[in-house]
Amino acid sequence: MAKQFFIFVFLLATAVNLSAQEDSVSRSIDEVVITATRTQARRNNVPMTVSVVNREEIEESSESALLPVLSGRVPGMFVTERSIMGFGVGSSGAGSISLRGVGGGTELLLLIDGHPHYMGIMGHHLPDAFVASDAEKVEVIRGPASLLYGSNAMGGVINVITRKQEAEGWNVNGRIMYGSYNTHKYQVGAGWKKGKFSGLLSVNHDRTDGNRTNPVDGDRKSGRFNITNGYAKFGYQFSDHIRAWGDLSIASYETKNPGSTATPMFDNVADILRGVASVTLENNFNSTNGAFNFFYNFGNHKIDDGYEEGSNPSGFYFRSNDHNYGFTWYQIFRPFTGNTITAGIDFKNFGGRAWDDYKDGVTPDNVNADTSLYEMAGYIVVQQTLFKQLTLNVGVRFDNNEQFGPEWIPQAGLAYRPLKYTVVKASVSKGFRSPNIRELFYKAGWAGANPDLKPEKMINYELSIGQELWNGRFSFELTGFIADGSNLIVTDWSSGYPPQNKNSGYFKNSGVELSVKWKALKNLNVQGNYAYLHMDTPVVYAPEQQFYFAASYQLNKWTFSANYQHVGNLYSNSAVPDRTETYGLLDAKATYRPLKWLNVFAKGENLTDREYQIRDGFPMPGITVFGGVNISLK
Q1: Labelling 60: which of 43, 292, 361, 365 has CA 20 to 30 A away?
Q2: Structural domains in the chain?
């Protein structure tokens, strides 16, 4: 690690030297973000490192699911996949997210407009429920964000900021797309605004046969997947200072798991319904602003665990009804020049009922969990800017969980601007994660329930520099970090079956991240990032190295884009720690716009036909091609 540290120091010194020779117009490092402070703030005033994936990048991807858009575009972030489309659920599901080697399903918090979105019993997000067409942009805090967002934000936060109708009048948009493995994607949306009222509606439907064929019975649809997503958002501007809005998002999908290549599965089918609704009241005055938000997440799952060749079909369905509801309130005060004070209160209740529903209709249901827990927290953050160059940020959170009591969460950081277009940041932050219902109480033999568990904890140290050069056409951010985690919840099999969950795990990760944006020519944009991760104890689905490069060129009515992603030393099987994957993927897309409201596109993925696996035993598709049409009417 010493070598990487000296390289980081050298690059840091070089960047500062270059910055002294340039005068530029700030664009990237001065971008407005919301997630790091709960209100609009300039990135160069925020001590944490925040990555932003904007609407243009989301639309250019032509993806319907949101998580594949983020993978590669955010330094140090990795999303697991198992097929051409659809993440699935259960032990063979994908969609887990690693950020700097921390994450999996529960140690990163996914938000929609600032409120949590995860399953009440298992405590993890459902990746297929996040849709690209609903997102205006995505902000990612790379590091602990428990000060503002509490449990599950131990390793970071991914905040999906949804779209809203800003312009007066109406618009309609739609997309039709078809490609390899009989993959269909359809999307239609409409938005309107009249006076103080605005609304937005969208519907997505995707389906595919999947890229797997069952080697036993030749089923060409053994990895099939289909999903329908609906989204609605309505807002009303009561006055210049008060605004209210509410939204509803529904995802209904069926996914079939073909099993690994070593142990093919039959009839392993999941039928999932997920939804989230929220109501928000915002206020915005000269010296203060804030919001109150009530949210309700719900889910209904019906899963057939299936069977292997030579075994008998499963005799029951796994069933669950879960919830995660609560409210968030915050208010930001500006008592004098350069000073802001943020105070907030959070409450959430999560849980539900999970049971085995026997198919014979005679055997009584076996209830595995039927309970809920609540958490209540308050926090305060004080930020002060001195001499227009130095911004200090310090805060503390008090979080109280019904099961295991209180937890204090401190955080401190600074942002220093020695030159007009240079920003240096440093921070020390604590993250934590509360045990979920499954870990505490779930009665299935494999679950290892232990009601005496305590929260997982993590301390993160971070230093970064951001710089813009050449009149704002070129910008970069270089970050070094050390993360130390303790009290991690692990399943101890040493005492036999059933196992038991214990607080005995730990990790120490460190690394370097570099992101670059460059407007090379008037019609040519280039961006890329590199992340190196050193783990004292290797973690599954956390690559040691990642590299991403993307370029987009516009010529009259044509737009050409391409990206390349390299993943190095990815551990794909926790049971075989010396097995790693290294691969590179090349994607490209061409778009033609014959009319202002119409464009036609074709895209190809994995154009070098690379053989690779992210989940061990689940080969990813080779070359895939898609074509489609986008329509946008105003």
Answers
A1: 43
A2: 2-633 (2.40.170.20)
